[in-house]
TrEMBL record:
GO terms for cellular component: glycosylphosphatidylinositol-N-acetylglucosaminyltransferase (GPI-GnT) complex. Pathway: Glycolipid biosynthesis; glycosylphosphatidylinositol-anchor biosynthesis. Residues 112-177 form the Phosphatidylinositol N-acetylglucosaminyltransferase subunit H conserved domain. It comes from Friedmanniomyces endolithicus. This is Phosphatidylinositol N-acetylglucosaminyltransferase subunit H conserved domain-containing protein. PANTHER family: PHOSPHATIDYLINOSITOL N-ACETYLGLUCOSAMINYLTRANSFERASE SUBUNIT H. The keyword Iron-sulfur does not apply. InterPro entries: PIG-H, PIGH-H_dom. Belongs to the PIGH family.
Length: 181
């Protein structure tokens, strides 16, 4: 989805997002539901890791809140205790790693192009994970040699993409490289 914002008479911001537009309450509710599912999965992984720690190192009972938060006897039947006792350690490690990766992976990408008349262009790409920051690059007008609109074929469709030839660089800068593919 492409959105265009004209903040001043000399700037234009183009943003491409692979996520759905947040226009209806249903879309917003599904985003909050996904956030809640990620939080619950994170709590599950923490409970699993704490239960694993207590199982391996015999948790001291004097830690405030830990003895009430995690059951230490096999009489308690919760999912983290069952996983700690029933599954081998390598399955538990794989499950915790996969769940953590799913928690921190973004469901969509955003790329933007800010055109500032007389100064240059700024490209920005969001990271695929919540753990990393976005990548931003500013290209001054004096360094821009040329701008091309290319055609690319993907299957039976034609995709158009914008590329900028920058002075003293071998490769061209492709604007919106992830959403164009």
């Amino acid at each position: 989805m492409l959105t265009t914002k004209r903040q001043t008479s000399t700037t234009v911001l183009y943003t491409v997002s692979t996520g759905p537009p947040v226009l209806s309450w249903g879309t917003r509710a599904s985003q909050y539901g996904l956030l809640l599912a990620r939080l619950l999965a994170g709590i599950f992984v923490l409970a699993l890791l704490l239960n694993e720690y207590c199982h391996a190192f015999r948790c001291p009972q004097n830690l405030p809140g830990l003895s009430s938060a995690l059951p230490t006897s096999p009489a308690h039947h919760n999912l983290a205790a069952w996983l700690t006792h029933a599954l081998p350690w390598y399955y538990r490690a794989l499950l915790a790693t996969a769940t953590t990766w799913l928690i921190f992976t973004k469901s969509h990408l955003e790329e933007s192009l800010l055109v500032i008349r007389g100064l240059g262009v700024q490209t920005s790409t969001s990271s695929p994970s919540y753990l990393w920051t976005s990548t931003t690059r500013f290209i001054p007008t004096s360094s821009i040699q040329d701008i091309f609109i290319h055609e690319a074929f993907r299957g039976f469709e034609v995709r158009y993409y914008l590329s900028i030839v920058v002075e003293d660089e071998e490769d061209v800068v492709v604007v919106f490289p992830y959403t164009a593919s």
